[in-house]
Design brief:
alpha/beta, Pyruvate Kinase, Chain: A, domain 1, seven-stranded mixed sheet, 6 helices, 7 strands, globular
Length: 193
């Protein structure tokens, strides 16, 4: 059987694509009967935009944030008031260590070289898009925290630095079973990194 779907290509990566990504993610989730949208958000900017779209579409939003201490020791970058508001609205907020770096990055920074895990992350960043690496990593983190099931597809969203610019359909897996994860569709991505 053959299925044709369009892919949206943005001329450049970045925050200016966030609203379009939210609309595309919600539309594709509804088309496929997917109930969960996983989105990366550092400060809350992207989470807020996606919450508005997901609420209108009746979708469950899972926001994956940086771990505490990512930018500075003991500091969580996400807006705490927004986190409270979103949680009260039924949004799941997951804060976890980067699945494609974590402890490996600490070793590389201290001892030099790069790990196999970091090589996978860099391959995603350089051959496809930074947003793809982020979306895949967020799904791994969400699955490891039990926020998404591993037996049904999710719409996953990542971006380059700020905002969102990549939308994927993914069959999740846990980090320990990484090679079971399947990127099944590209819905949107920047054409140029």
């Amino acid at each position: 059987m053959k299925t044709e779907k369009s892919i949206t290509y943005f001329s450049s990566p970045g925050k200016e694509n966030t609203k379009d990504c939210a609309e595309l993610a919600a539309a594709r989730a509804k088309e496929l009967g997917i109930s969960d949208v996983v989105v990366a958000s550092c400060s809350g900017y992207t989470a807020r935009i996606f919450w508005e779209e997901c609420k209108k579409a009746g979708l469950h939003l899972i926001v994956v944030t940086h771990a505490v201490g990512f930018e500075a020791p003991g500091i969580w970058e996400f807006d705490c008031e927004l986190a409270k508001e979103l949680t009260e609205e039924g949004v799941s907020i997951v804060t976890g260590t980067h699945a494609l770096s974590g402890m490996e990055r600490a070793i590389s920074r201290r001892l030099g070289g790069a790990s196999r895990t970091e090589a996978i992350a860099e391959a995603f960043r350089r051959t496809i898009s930074i947003g793809m690496k982020v979306a895949v990593e967020c799904v791994l983190i969400a699955a490891d925290q039990g926020a998404v099931p591993v037996d049904r597809e999710v719409v996953a969203v990542g971006g380059t630095a700020e905002g969102a610019d990549t939308v994927l359909v993914i069959l999740p897996s846990h980090t320990a079973t990484f090679f079971d994860l399947q990127v099944r569709e590209f819905v949107a991505m920047p054409r140029n990194r």
